[in-house]
Amino acid sequence: MNHSNHVVSSAITPESIADSSLVAPEAVAQYALGLGDDALVLAHRLGEWITNAPELEEDVALGNIGLDLLGHARSLLTYAGTAWDKTEDDLAYFRDEPEFRSHQLFEQPNGDFAATIARQLFASVYFAELYRALSESADATLAAIAAKAVKEVDYHVDHSAQWLLRLGLGTEYSHQRMQAGLDTMWPFVDELFREDPYAVGLEGVAVDPRTLRPAFDASVPQMITEAGLEVPAAPAARGGGRSGVHAEAFGPMLAELQVLARAHPGATW
Amino acid sequence: MTAIMAGLTRDEQAVWDIAATVVDPEVPVLTIEDLGVLRAVSVAGDAVTVDITPTYSGCPAIDAMRDDIVSALSAAGYAEVRVRQVLAPAWTTEWMSSAGRAKLEAFGIAPPLPHEAGMRGSHGSVNLGLGIRCPHCGSLHTRQLSRFGSTSCKALYVCQRCQEPFDYFKAH
User: Fold this and answer.
1) Domains assigned to chain B
2) DSSP string for residues in A200-226
3) Among A116, A166, B81, B104, whose Cα sits 20 to 30 Å from the Cα of B140?
4) Where residue A135 sits, what CATH number does that domain have?
5) What ipTM, to 2 d.p.?
6) CB burial of residue A26 (10 Å; 0-12, 13-18, 19+)
7) Touching B: A residues 98-137, CB under 8 Å
8) Cis peptide leading into B89, omega within 30 of 0?
């Protein structure tokens, strides 16, 4: 066994930042906050499936995917928090709804299993493209978080793609439900690829989401077609998540996410 | 364990050897050295710093590993123990030692295939199902039951020959 060829040369430690000198520049922190919120919100939604999925394996799968996303959220929020002397928990539990910047796709209620798969497919392909690009960021911490995340998200894409095929090419009823799931989530796809106000002015550091759309368009419609389903034609929703405008279902979800920490501030167990 | 990072001093080697006794709480046959999670150590007097890499971004085992490292080194007399989580370069199963792979298999968990085996495509295509060997009977006639298992790092398989289910430590 030989460790010599993978000795760590530069330590990047966004998770134990409190005792480190690493501080995110203000603009980078603002950008990271939005990415962290996306991951946090979707992680919470996936957690809602635990004990409710159609089979035990999917309970575990959705929980695992949520756990990966929670890991991304923790890294991103911790890093963002360094700019304001706040912890990941300060940012997750003690901001109110308009201060969140999550995209509305991630806030959508789970619906049935097919709707969750549709949301997860769109989300995972978006995350895969985003993190692949962000792993080239000139900001070393963002690049490190993204390089780690992309390996996990690739696996998530595969999970959704397999279910898309299975449900789309399954029975007439599963096909119908999968199509309905795609139709429900499709209007919220467009927002992912609009200009991110917090990415402006961060060329080389942040990823302009508009540059990710061609890769999404080159893969997702084809996956849908291969599953014997129709690419939805529904118009795009208004969006506004990055500016604090959220889906109707987001408030109740956030209340549930935050209630324990707010009822017992500083509690540990 | 004699294997070491290049250029460790005698003091660092002592710290490394203690830290390397800490095991993965979920897979207790593997030490953090076997896993490739233990990355670096540095020593300044009786203050030591240990760098570890999380396996998966959200893996909760990392907190237990960190606490265990602190306990092990504190018990050995180091006054100040700091454990840092290093995200870059990202952990990969390629860092798992061959001893670790053998221990996993003996424990009943199929070890990760090397990346060269074509486990990962360019975009999300993870070609599973090829050549995962049953750790119970050795058969290659196995099938994936679920791509997600009891922890982030494992997938659930079943052997078609001996019918036993088993965990596969995913190539990552």
Assistant:
1) 10-85 (3.30.300.130), 96-169 (no CATH)
2) TT-BTTB--GGGGHHHHHHHHHHHHHH
3) A166
4) 1.20.1260.10
5) 0.80
6) exposed
7) 124-125, 128
8) yes
